């Protein structure tokens, strides 16, 4: 008989996931808060970021990855992720029909967000 690692699978309400993410931003908790279908992607991304951090002696890739997946876990728990996808699809349809889509240019939004993070983008 072999002993294989296993995860305790528990179903949590979206509010419980959001609360958990507020108090624990560890890789283990972020992964546990993701839908099971996303966990392999998280694992792959995390291992790649850790390898890069080890090679470059810089934790910035790991921190950026954890921030990304933290937001994904939160958005997927609350349904915001699907709303964003649906909104994006509606905008894409408008663009394809040649309709005017109000808003700010993506380049401007990205530059603003990068500035807030202290990152210089070459757009």
Automatic annotation (TrEMBL):
**Organism's domain of life?**
Bacteria
Pfam families according to UniProt: DUF6247 (PF19760)
Q: What is this protein called?
A: Uncharacterized protein
């Amino acid at each position: 008989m072999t002993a294989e690692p296993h995860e305790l699978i528990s179903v949590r309400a979206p509010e419980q996931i959001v609360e958990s993410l507020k108090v624990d931003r560890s890789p283990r908790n972020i992964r546990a808060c993701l839908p099971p279908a996303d966990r392999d992607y998280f694992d792959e991304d995390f291992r790649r970021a850790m390898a890069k951090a080890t090679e470059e002696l810089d934790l910035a890739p790991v921190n950026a990855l954890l921030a990304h997946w933290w937001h994904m876990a939160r958005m997927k728990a609350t349904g915001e992720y699907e709303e964003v996808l649906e909104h994006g699809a509606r905008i894409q349809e408008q663009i394809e029909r040649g309709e005017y889509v109000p808003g700010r240019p993506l380049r401007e939004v990205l530059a603003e967000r990068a500035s807030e993070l202290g990152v210089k983008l070459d757009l």
